[in-house]
């Protein structure tokens, strides 16, 4: 007879491990299945996010930004540092150390919460049984409830087959041991921009090929246009919009890329090429045929608004289901499902999930864009405030970008907030909280913001929706 648990979670990424922790907090006998392992073959919890995604990329972004500042900004502050040298190996070592500390931290949390960690590939069988496979061996467990949190994987394209030597996916791009003279990136979305920014700051000549004619389609157009100018004219990223890569040819330690742009064929040669065209649900072979698990047309697990699948007692969360592929969205779904299983009535509002792009400047937003407001026929007001007029921003030598607020013209309720500028990833939290409580721009306007802080830009943008900004001409 197989060992039985109250809950088995398949996947230990931000959605899965958080779900397991919350289930354990609520008194459930919980197991979590995960097959990720580090370079030495040891189990490494945290999924893509901690191992080769959110965390290591932010570590490199921070290191590369400091390197860039020493070369281009310190002099403005009266600081002379002499010749600046770069040790890429040390940078990668630091990144790996951060990853190791955090993944071990999750293992420690599992132990403290008495969660059984099962290392191997999990597969849902009929009757809420879970098969765990590793090195050709299998074991079967059963549960009253199963939570599928298998995450996502990079989308591959036939014209650029990843070898993680010359042609890289996001994981390979985090382990480049030498700054490439020329770097190509297929895809100018979130991942492509962040990874391209890292190596541009470190000295690479970076070209991004984006098949879409529009830059950062999900972003409010006013901000995306300003961001495009900043990244191209200000920082030197060569972003080719409407460029379709048609062929790649690897030649020893370089790759020749052929692409179509404006009806003409072009080619260029790069030392490295990163493929960052998006991600898809990692649902391959996740369930046996007789389990009855239903997938949608995009290969995601089909769920209702309570993350329930087609099988009673089986839930799915995170990148494996509909909605934005964001770590924090998956984590909140993990908490939500754990509390549903416990008989509680939790709250989760997908309309207030924030988005962040960790470029420099950062881009963050929550709610609807001005274009969406128009398309939905909403009578709205907008207000914006530039960081160039913010005292703290100027003191930081950060003079670009803005905060934009969109509000319902009738009710004054905040419908969306969009930020391009310093620490946008942190500033957006106030907007999320405001929208979660159905706040109006007047609520933000009447809230005292410390001076001098970057947060004053949001305060002023809220005032600007009714023509009352104090530190810019309305």
From TrEMBL:
Note: The active site is a redox-active disulfide bond.
InterPro entries: Class-I_Pyr_Nuc-Dis_Oxidored (IPR050151), FAD/NAD-bd_sf (IPR036188), FAD/NAD-binding_dom (IPR023753), FAD/NAD-linked_Rdtase_dimer_sf (IPR016156), Lipoamide_DH (IPR006258), Pyr_nuc-diS_OxRdtase (IPR001100), Pyr_nucl-diS_OxRdtase_dimer (IPR004099), Pyr_OxRdtase_I_AS (IPR012999)
Entry's cofactor comment: Binds 1 FAD per subunit.
Enzyme Commission code(s) on record: 1.8.1.4
Ranges of residues in domain FAD/NAD(P)-binding: 5-334
A GO molecular function held by the record: dihydrolipoyl dehydrogenase (NADH) activity
Protein's recorded name: Dihydrolipoyl dehydrogenase
Disulfide bond residue pairs: 49-54
Record has Transit peptide as a keyword: no
Residues binding NAD(+), per UniProt: 187-194, 210, 278
Gene3D superfamilies cross-referenced by the UniProt entry: 3.30.390.30, FAD/NAD(P)-binding domain
Localization of this protein: Cytoplasm
Catalytic activity: N(6)-[(R)-dihydrolipoyl]-L-lysyl-[protein] + NAD(+) = N(6)-[(R)-lipoyl]-L-lysyl-[protein] + NADH + H(+)
Residues of the Pyridine nucleotide-disulphide oxidoreductase dimerisation domain: 353-462
Coarse class of the protein's main subcellular location: cytoplasm
Biological-process GO terms, alphabetical: 2-oxoglutarate metabolic process
Organism (species): Arenicella chitinivorans
Catalytic center residues: 451 (proton acceptor)
């Amino acid at each position: 007879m197989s060992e039985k648990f109250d809950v088995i979670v398949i996947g230990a990424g931000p959605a899965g491990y958080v779900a397991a922790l919350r289930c354990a907090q609520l008194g459930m006998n919980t197991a979590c299945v995960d097959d990720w392992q580090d370079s030495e073959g040891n189990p490494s919890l945290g999924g893509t996010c901690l191992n080769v995604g959110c965390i290591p990329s932010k570590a490199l972004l921070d290191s590369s930004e400091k390197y860039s500042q020493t070369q281009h900004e310190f002099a403005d502050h009266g600081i002379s540092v002499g010749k600046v040298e770069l040790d890429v190996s040390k940078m990668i070592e630091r990144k790996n150390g951060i990853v190791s500390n955090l993944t071990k931290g999750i293992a420690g949390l599992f132990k403290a919460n008495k969660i059984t960690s099962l290392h191997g590939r999990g597969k849902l069988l009929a009757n809420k049984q879970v098969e765990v496979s590793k090195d050709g061996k299998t074991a079967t467990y059963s549960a009253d409830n199963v939570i599928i949190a298998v995450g996502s994987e990079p989308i591959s394209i036939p014209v650029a087959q990843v070898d993680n030597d010359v042609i890289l996916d996001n994981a390979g791009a985090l382990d480049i041991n030498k700054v490439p003279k020329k770097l190509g990136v297929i895809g100018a979305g979130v991942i492509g921009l962040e990874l391209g920014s890292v190596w541009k700051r470190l000295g690479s000549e970076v070209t991004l090929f984006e098949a879409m004619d529009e830059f950062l389609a999900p972003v409010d157009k006013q901000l995306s246009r300003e961001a495009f100018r900043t990244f191209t004219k200000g920082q030197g990223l060569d972003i080719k919009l409407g460029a379709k890569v048609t062929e790649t040819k690897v030649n020893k330690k370089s790759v020749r890329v052929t692409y179509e742009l404006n009806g003409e064929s072009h080619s260029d040669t790069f030392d490295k090429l990163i493929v960052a065209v998006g991600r898809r649900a990692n649902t391959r072979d996740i369930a046996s045929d007789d389990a009855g698990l239903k997938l949608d047309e995009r290969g995601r697990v089909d769920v209702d608004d309570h993350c329930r699948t087609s099988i009673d007692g089986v839930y799915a969360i995170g990148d494996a289901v509909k909605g934005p592929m964001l770590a924090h969205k998956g984590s909140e779904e993990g908490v939500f499902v754990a509390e549903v299983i416990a008989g509680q009535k939790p709250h989760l509002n997908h309309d207030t999930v924030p988005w962040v792009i960790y470029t420099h400047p950062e881009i963050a937003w929550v709610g609807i864009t001005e274009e969406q407001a128009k398309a939905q026929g909403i009578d709205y007001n907008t207000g914006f405030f530039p960081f160039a007029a913010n005292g703290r921003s100027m003191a930081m030598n950060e003079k670009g970008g803005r905060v934009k607020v969109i509000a319902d013209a009738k009710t004054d309720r905040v419908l969306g907030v969009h930020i391009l500028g310093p620490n946008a990833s942190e500033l957006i939290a106030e907007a999320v909280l405001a929208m979660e409580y159905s706040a109006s721009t007047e609520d933000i306007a009447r809230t005292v913001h410390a001076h001098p802080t970057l947060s004053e830009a949001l305060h002023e943008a809220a005032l600007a929706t009714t023509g009352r900004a104090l530190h810019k001409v309305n």
